[in-house]
Amino acid sequence: MSAIPPRQERSQRTLDQLLASAEAVLARDGLEGATVPAIAAHAGLSVGSVYRRFPDKDALVREVCERFFERGAAANRASLEAARYQGMPLARLARLLISAMIAGYRQHRGLLRALHLYIRTHEDRAFRRRADELSSDALRRMGDLLLLRKSEIGHPRPERAVRFGLLQLSFALREMMLSDPAGLHPRVAQLLPEEDLAGELTRMYLGFLSG
User: What is the pLDDT of residue 4?
Assistant: First the structure.
């Protein structure tokens, strides 16, 4: 069940405050720790006022999830316009995009851990599909940009290589950066510091694209 539509400006501000607090508590305490009372306390609201908008925690977290990824998709539309990268060679563009992926995971590490767990374990298949589409928006747009440099790609099937490689990077980063709340996965951290991750992943990705 979705949120009750706010009917006035003050109601909208309260809803925004509630959703921002839910994001903060999810990032801090994880999916299990983000209880309705904890979220209400963070927002400075009564528990009853939360339940007047959302029937249960699931409806609240679902709204947070859709809002977060829709906001990300809107940001991607602005930041991944082809004109912004005109003339940039493949290697530099790949490094820039991979660095941006890592920065996004680092900035929202706690919240992404909670939301990916929520999506993965949700019973509503249509919701899981919609959430996956929203969270994959950046990968699609990155792939479109990289394929404008098709002449620099040595792989015999450039589109497959670009998109499959980005998907693998996404899976790898999710495991490396979200599996441990303290930072990088311990086995990765033993091999290299987090600041070297972009360089190593870029070399790996470009090697794959070279065919």
Answer: 59
Structure tokens at 151: 């002449």
Is residue 152 within 8 A of residue 164, CB to CB? The reply is: no
CA distance 208 to 91: 12
The closest of 130, 210, 135, 120 to 167, measured between CA atoms, is 135
Distance CA 145, CA 162 (A): 10
**pLDDT single digits (tens) 97-138:** 999 999 999 999 999 999 999 999 999 999 999 888 888 899
- pTM, whole model, 2 decimals? 0.87
Point out which residues pair with 180 in neighbouring strands.
183
- Which residues of the chain are under the pLDDT cut of 70? 1-7
Residues 6 or more apart whose CB falls under 8 angstroms from that of 54 comprise 1, 3, 60, 63
CA distances from 3 to 16, 39, 54, 101, 200 (A): 12, 16, 6, 30, 43
